[in-house]
Design brief:
This protein is α+β, with helices and mostly antiparallel strands and 414 residues long. It has 16 helices and 11 strands. It is globular, with a radius of gyration of 26 Å.
Length: 414
């Protein structure tokens, strides 16, 4: 394994792939401030700058690592040198793992360089990150299961829906639950359970809320938030995200965040999307480290995936297959979320949506990871999530792919 690692690492360094990639990362950070188009505020410019610099560097690390992995054994097979590489007693898994480790170190060097460049911009790193807590709600699918019988028996439900398979109806109800609005009429109170919020939190929490109004009208919202021994009044327009610091007050609202609507109009909130409690976490530097670990875990998986493809395919076919599957994995969650119901769809659309749902479920841990977005929005990347991503996406899944690669490269060509 050690010899395989050293040979591949020397090839990356002497072949100038490492230096060219480092130069590309430096150029992205150099030009990022000039390319930023924010919303006219310093916070908006900072968010877009971090997103562009970190996201561009992350993309470079992923693409170069994936391309290098797709060519690891393909080029040796084409030049008839693969048999010499695997002369016994060389361990096939050791050869594969050593080269994968070299690609992992390559990606880690690029991400560490990018993270260091981010820390050099004081205007971007002065904002600390915050913990985000969502209301404690049952899963959308469990809510859909409870609603299924009543929904199908309702006389207003379309016949096409009643005749559809139960799985399709449940998916439809789960999507509706994700977008469900709770309505507060004048004088009424909305409440959300935040039982998972830390019992002894340091400092007062901040409410992040987005109100909406009927017919998407822009209206003034007035009301009062209460949570535990904290409260705050709100006066704000709808259609914008409001961050409202809570202050100590003579109240005891318990573990539920409540909002009393004192507006003359109805206001609406999507509990799964539009309400959170925020708490101060730590510095941008620590968040940068955790985000880099999540990015590295994805790069490690793609390096192993490219290695697996190169063990049985040529480099052009490996690269095309890898890029196609990455594109599908990135698009599948959006297709599932935005596609309307399929009750009146044709067979082709139904088949395509079924495939998208399958891909989205398989690649959920990879495609839904958003370290760049969290870093740009000062959302704390939790240690638990970063270490879990590193263990599963960076070690467990690559180990399975590397074992399959070792078995494939031992096969003699016919």
């Amino acid at each position: 394994m050690r010899a395989s690692f050293e040979l591949e690492w020397r090839a990356l360094v002497r072949g100038k792939a490492l230096w060219a990639s480092l130069a590309a990362v430096a150029l992205v950070h150099w030009f990022a401030p000039d390319l930023v188009r924010g919303d006219g505020t310093a916070a908006g410019a900072r968010e877009m700058g971090v997103r562009l610099a970190a996201g561009g560097s992350f993309a470079i690390a992923l693409l170069v690592t994936l391309a290098a992995g797709c060519g690891l054994f393909a080029r040796e097979r084409e030049s008839n040198r693969l048999g010499l590489t695997l002369v016994r007693p060389a361990c096939a898994f050791g050869v594969v793992a050593g080269r994968w480790l070299a690609l992992t170190l390559f990606a880690a060097a690029l991400l560490a360089f990018s993270g260091g460049l981010l820390l050099c911009r004081g205007a971007w790193t002065s904002t600390p990150c915050r913990h985000h807590f969502a209301p404690r709600l049952p899963s959308p699918m469990s809510v859909a299961l409870l609603q299924y019988d009543r929904y199908v028996a309702d006389e207003h439900t379309l016949d096409a829906v009643k005749k559809a398979p139960k799985g399709a109806v449940l998916q439809h109800l789960a999507m509706k639950e994700n977008e469900r609005y709770e309505v507060a009429r004048p004088g009424e109170t909305l409440a959300w359970d935040f039982g998972a919020f830390p019992a002894h939190a340091a400092g007062a929490p901040v409410v992040a809320i987005r109100f909406a109004a009927s017919y998407d009208m822009r209206l003034d919202v007035r009301g009062t938030f209460n949570f535990r021994a904290f409260a705050a009044d709100v006066t704000n327009k709808t259609q914008s995200v409001l961050e409202l610091p809570l202050a100590a007050a003579a109240t005891n609202a318990g573990e539920k965040l409540t909002f009393v609507n004192r507006s003359p109009q109805n206001v609406m909130v999507r509990p799964r999307r539009d309400v959170e409690l925020l708490l101060p976490a730590d510095s941008f530097a620590w968040n940068d480290l955790r985000a880099s670990l999540e990015m590295l875990s994805i790069a490690m998986f793609l390096a192993a995936f490219g290695t697996f493809l190169s063990s049985c395919l040529s480099k052009p076919v490996s690269l095309f297959t890898a890029l196609s599957m990455v594109a599908v994995a990135l698009m599948a969650p959006g297709v599932v979320e935005q596609y309307p119901d399929t009750f009146d769809a044709n067979l082709v659309d139904k088949a395509g949506l079924a495939m998208s749902r399958f891909v989205a479920s398989v690649t959920d841990g990879l495609a839904n990871a958003s370290p760049v977005e969290s870093l740009s929005q000062s959302r704390c990347v939790e240690w638990r999530g970063a270490l879990r991503a590193l263990a599963v996406n960076g070690l467990l899944l690559p180990a399975c792919l590397l074992a399959a690669s070792a078995a494939l490269i031992r096969r003699k060509p016919r």
